[in-house]
Amino acid sequence: MLLVRNAVVAAIAVVGVSSVSAFGGGGAPAIVTGNTTGGPTWHRTVGGTPPTSLHPTGTAVPYTVTPFTVDATGNYLLEGSYPTGYDGYLHLYQNAFNPLDQFTNVLSADDDFSGAFTVLPGSSASNAQGSQILPLPLTAGVTYLAVVSGFGNLDFGPYTLGIGNGPGNVTIVPEPTSLAAIGAGAVALLARRRAK
Ligand SMILES: [Ca+2]
Ligand SMILES: [Ca+2]
């Protein structure tokens, strides 16, 4: 039951992702654009590797979830850019993400990054609220989940998420359309169970 509920949560969150693209060739990053506006909300953590506490005011922050895999084990970077200037936040989970169980499976989280982006084009100098998760060892074939949200409950909007700078290709899985279909099936399953 918990697994089904998590699948529904992930499917609903991914609906906010509007486009996915990846460059060809070895070690290709994935660049995802999306929007957290109107998304489900969570009580986010305070950044760290791993985070160890919940933030006192970021108690109901809209988020989206982007599952991905890498095809070669090694260090990868995650970056978040928030073009409308709201204060965005980036979390990385492995295997599963439960917004009500923030410290299970969490690897790292970051609020602000002031340097030049590596995976995303351009510099974050004009986007001081961008995020970067430092190179972390990721394992080929494991499902990771990038959670984009905001600093505060009113921080939401469009974003660009970049995952890469590693030895292998980054693949967003599953496609948002097929995941939405899985989510619809899970919702129907829940409805049938509740009807009994
Ligand atoms: Ca930020
Ligand atoms: Ca900030």
Walk me through this protein's architecture.
It is a single chain. This protein is globular. Strand 1 and strand 2 form a beta hairpin. The chain is α+β, with helices and mostly antiparallel strands and 196 residues long. The protein has a single domain (2-195), classed as Jelly Rolls, CATH 2.60.120.380. A five-stranded antiparallel β-sheet has the order 1-2-11-6-9, with no helix packed on it. Helix 1 crosses helix 2 (176-195). It has helices at 2-14, 176-195, and strands at residues 17-22, 30-35, 41-42, 61-62, 64-70, 74-81, 88-94, 106-110, 131-138, 144-150, 158-164, 170-172. Helix content is 17%, strand content 35%. Mean pLDDT is 82; it is low at 1-25. It has two helices and twelve strands, in the order H-E-E-E-E-E-E-E-E-E-E-E-E-H. Bound molecules: calcium ion (CA) (2 copies). One calcium ion binds next to strand 7.
Concise overview:
The chain is an alpha+beta fold and 196 residues long. It has two helices and twelve strands.
Break the fold down into its secondary structure elements and pairings.
Blueprint: H1 2-14, E1 17-22, E2 30-35, E3 41-42, E4 61-62, E5 64-70, E6 74-81, E7 88-94, E8 106-110, E9 131-138, E10 144-150, E11 158-164, E12 170-172, H2 176-195
Antiparallel strand pairs: 1-2, 2-11, 3-4, 5-10, 5-12, 6-9, 6-11, 7-8, 7-10
Helix pairs in contact: 1-2
